[in-house]
Design goal:
The chain is built from two helices and eight strands, in the order βββββαβββα. The chain is mainly beta and 204 residues long.
């Protein structure tokens, strides 16, 4: 799935997906992933907030699936030299009283900053950090501590082009080491394995 087309996605000016065509089986795993920041249609000042609704499916012990209503809250933190810093935070709207559901939700939440190039209309970098505890998710004595960090950085075109294309690794090669000559016996010592000459005796 490296250096091949996974999906062809068409976005509107606000960053919403209007058409998606998956070209690779791997794309099904990221079908629900966020492509870019959803932008408001009107011009906004620094400090302005907007949100997008998002439903998260969680599994119940009965085997059923429950939809939890959440929203992505966006805040325009600053704009410097054409780069907008946008704060993103997941907010859970459905009241949750079950730690087992909380343990599933915490793995789907995001919180961090996105750097967005306004002129190019694309994300050039982002970092998401999450550090949360859930108590009693699997019995009263259970505890879940979920810590994760996601980082992404847009490489310059020259640096990205310099990377070699992905492909199968070359087969291993075997190199023969030159054999060392056998050491010469020291003094009158005979090399191992040599046969002794029979002794001769003259009898008069």
């Amino acid at each position: 799935s490296v250096n091949v087309v996974l999906s062809v996605i068409t976005l509107d000016p606000q960053g919403k997906i209007v058409r998606r065509e998956d070209k690779h089986p791997q794309a099904a795993q990221t079908a629900a992933a966020q492509i870019t920041v959803a932008m408001p249609a009107e011009a906004i000042p620094v400090g302005h907030q907007w949100s997008e609704p998002h439903d998260i499916d969680v599994s119940l012990p009965s085997g059923q699936v429950k939809k939890i209503k959440t929203r992505q809250l966006f805040t325009l933190s600053e704009v410097t030299q054409g780069i907008a810093v946008i704060r993103i935070e997941t907010q859970v709207l459905t009241p949750i009283h079950d730690p087992a559901i909380e343990a599933q939700l915490v793995q789907r939440e995001t919180a961090g900053d996105v750097r967005f190039d306004i002129a190019a209309g694309r994300i050039i970098g982002q970092q998401m950090d999450l550090d949360k505890h859930v108590l009693g998710f699997s019995g009263n004595a259970s505890s879940l501590h979920y810590v994760t960090r996601f980082t992404e950085e847009l490489l310059p075109e020259s640096q990205a082009a310099a990377r070699p294309p992905a492909g199968p690794a070359p087969p291993p090669t075997l190199a023969r080491k030159p054999s060392k000559p056998a050491p010469k016996p020291a003094g009158n010592a005979k090399p191992p394995g040599s046969a002794k000459k029979p002794a001769t005796r003259r009898v008069r």
